[in-house]
Structure to design on (1116 residues):
């Protein structure tokens, strides 16, 4: 991963080729919607601000992700892996913090649920379907995928306990839910730290194969340029996330969506759009290991890093975010984890399995749409 | 599947052999119980009508299945497959429609649950046990079996959402449950149609091996004879199903059974008796792929075709059947899917695994027996 | 298993080696804590009696287990296997009976839950972690492990039905819960008996490999000495268990623990300490098959033998113990079974998988700690 020989500058192929160019599309989106989103907030605030901010966040999140990857690559596998693991979902974390500070704790939790479901069902399903339309059968490393399943199972355990506790104890549970959530968050962060030790140190060879494909997708930026891009994109995300959060209530009023639907489906899709396109591209190149890795790694970071960090950060913010998710969210995570696991079990995928994951996502979408 | 060379006329072997002959047994049952059931309805209506109709439906359902298979075979793999997929569970569908028209919505839903549990636990368990008593270890194609599991997982998702929704929202959910069920039914039917495209078109080679065994079981009927048998048997099923449904209340009063028990255990066993015997015969011939295929395909047809069709057909009938199943039914489907998946995971079966499935079925039977 | 040639007297190696000696440690514990526990009960009863009895039970349970194994070995594979299967968890059974007679039905059920969770998560997790720190990758027989999963799934079914039934029916269920539990218990015992037939008779060759490792761990006692040790240790367990149960209320008052926590975590750890150390030793010797076998066999014995026997024995005791576990316990068993199954699926283990199991155990520990 860190030997210079394995780095293939991909930009020429990636940017000047005749075919579909994802990076250029994202830059165009940014150039159009970022100024519009800013202008909308000041001159015509309301539901349009929400929509414009949502669209502008997609390329911003992508830029942050790319800059992080370039810097991580230059730092080498140890430090770089650590950086990737911490900043990989920085955009989600910033949006969630903005929502948390404005007291939208429910939307924050819904966006955590939505990001996990989006990765395990929508991203993975679309990638398997797209790849399956091109290749009749695609193989991947079952052991790596099942390891991701096991970690998600741990996350599911963590997210189901407070909900059950509340429904068993009723209002008497309120006092206990926050300390319980803090204790569970600490356990999750410890397991997350150990999982980094595993993938970056003791068992880094297992992940070596995966890195071969990544350089192709990485822009040829100098460290300085990447750092500037990272700073600029982060600043942009921070600003636009604030504006988006301010417009949440207008959007809910205008579209008739529920808070949960906004969090689970809309905000989560914004945060995952970049992973989405990358996973599909990998599947079309028959690199299913990478597609699975994107879906499971991103879910893992949300569940074992972003969620517990938000719980701990909520203490100084005075918001006391708990890990209590709704019944529907817990069932959703259980279903998402189960479906992705079932697909991963035989180490092969075909387009019908992609349809199946998307079908599960659609049914959950119906459910979250109707929930008030 | 459609090349004439592969067709082995099985009737001589199947009918004149010294051993156990399933077809003759079913014809005998029909000759005795069909007239008795009719007579009972008119001359001594009541609990005996229920019992006689129940027994008469078993060979009728079997005849319908056989005639469908013969016609499907002559139509070739494409159209024939479509026919098999649509009429494969026609008997269940007719019984359910009769019950639905008489306002027994609960019994209809219970019979859907029961048919799925019957296939995944009773049919598969009995087949694995029977095969396992003859062979110490039987192998099957794990990938095909797991693909069935994945589809059943989708069905489980569809069946669990309305129940959860109701228990979360209380009476306020009533208004929403029917539109939600319609939306979910449409998703299920789309996935079902795509799964037919998969098995009949894009990946039909995967199922080619399975067809080798089927001709042996198929009667040597001309298309004309098969069509007449199909029409006659369908008419018979329609009549007897009506009589059976009329006698449901008498049976419940006489035996002390609950509505759920009648649907889940009794009606479901009637509808599955034919699959049951075929799956066991396949297992005894060490064709475990076929036994698994019968169990999973039949469950899939019930969950992804019969159930959503009943929901949509309930609109013109003015009955508004929802996909809301009881907690116990949802748990039952979850347990059945999980148990069959666990058994399928290693691609091998032995008699203890059959006992395990039957044990799970027995425990669920106890539960449904006690539920009022 | 029963041929004398395969018996390797291990005592010299096991006891006189320079390294860590488990047997000597346990004997030392016994010599110190058994007299203290007895004295405490009579001279300074209260919370210290609880602690001392708890510690004294660990080596007593171990001695019972070792003596049982020696006698079983001399009896040969048939009768010996039967003896191992019936007395393997005799210590747990005795402690549970003592608690049941004193009317601590909740603690009994909690200790059943705790013993299963302890085996599937703590024992297996610690073994995988310990083995994984020594070997980067350890392989085991996936089929055998999954067979254990399937049996635990049956147990999960049995334990979840009465809880669901109660929450659906409310107080009206009370009348039905005991007969339902008896019916389910009978089914579990039948499956248990058949599973013995499977492992000792029809498929004993599958377990032959496992036996190779056991002689190394077995003390070189004559049948007479083993019988005397078994009688003495059993007597000791009976006495100390009575004293422990008498002190439960004092311990709950002193430590502020809940009844559930005492049962799930403390009593269960006492009963499993011996399995715990053996499984870790096996993992350190790279015999992961044995480590998995210890965890799954012990869980199976608790769920399919100890629990139903306690239900049936409660009839003459007039206590009417049901199989109704709390929501939290049912969720715990479901999570434990799911986690162990996910780890077993690929036939390989590494230290991170051990961490994952221990993380799930820790989260459940947090949950049971907070439940009043």
């Amino acid at each position: 991963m860190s030997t210079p020989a394995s780095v293939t500058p991909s930009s020429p192929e990636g940017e000047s080729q005749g075919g579909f160019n994802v990076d250029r599309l994202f830059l165009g989106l940014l150039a159009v919607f970022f100024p519009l989103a800013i202008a909308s907030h000041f001159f015509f605030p309301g539901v349009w601000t929400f929509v414009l901010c949502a669209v502008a966040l997609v390329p911003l999140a992508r830029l942050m992700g790319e800059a992080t990857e370039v810097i991580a690559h230059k730092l080498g596998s140890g430090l770089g892996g650590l950086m990737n693991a911490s900043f990989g979902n920085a955009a989600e974390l910033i949006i969630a913090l903005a929502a948390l500070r404005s007291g939208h704790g429910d939307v924050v939790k819904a966006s955590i649920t939505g990001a996990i479901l989006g990765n395990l069902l929508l991203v993975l399903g679309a990638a398997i379907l797209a790849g399956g339309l091109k290749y009749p059968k695609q193989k991947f490393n079952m052991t790596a995928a099942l390891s991701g399943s096991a970690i998600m199972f741990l996350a599911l355990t963590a997210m189901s306990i407070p909900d059950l506790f509340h429904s068993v104890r009723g209002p008497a549970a309120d006092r206990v839910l926050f300390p319980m959530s803090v204790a569970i968050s600490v356990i999750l962060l410890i397991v997350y730290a150990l999982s980094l030790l595993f993938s970056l140190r003791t068992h880094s060879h297992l992940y070596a194969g995966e890195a071969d494909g990544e350089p192709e997708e990485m822009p040829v930026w100098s460290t300085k340029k990447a750092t500037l891009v990272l700073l600029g994109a982060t600043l942009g995300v921070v600003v636009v996330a604030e504006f988006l959060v301010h417009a949440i209530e207008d959007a809910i009023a205008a579209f008739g969506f529920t808070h949960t639907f906004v969090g689970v489906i809309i905000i989560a899709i914004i945060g995952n759009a970049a992973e989405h396109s990358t996973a599909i591209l990998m599947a079309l190149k028959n690199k299913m290991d990478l597609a699975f890795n994107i879906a499971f790694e991103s879910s893992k970071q949300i569940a074992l890093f972003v969620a517990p960090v938000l719980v701990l950060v909520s203490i100084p913010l005075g918001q006391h975010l708990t890990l209590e998710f709704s019944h529907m969210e817990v069932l959703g995570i259980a279903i998402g984890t189960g479906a992705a696991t079932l697909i991963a079990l035989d180490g092969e995928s075909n387009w019908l399995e992609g349809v199946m994951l998307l079908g599960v996502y659609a049914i959950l979408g119906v459910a979250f749409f109707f929930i008030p």
In short: Chain A is about 80% helix and 0% strand. Strands of chain A lie at 138-139, 348-349. The interface with chain C takes residues 142-143, 146-147, 149-151, 153-154, 157-158, 160-161, 164-165, 167-169, 172, 176, 179-180, 183-184, 187-188, 190-191, 194-195, 198, 202-203, 341, 345 of chain A (CB under 8 Å). Residues 105-134 of chain A form the longest helix (30 residues).
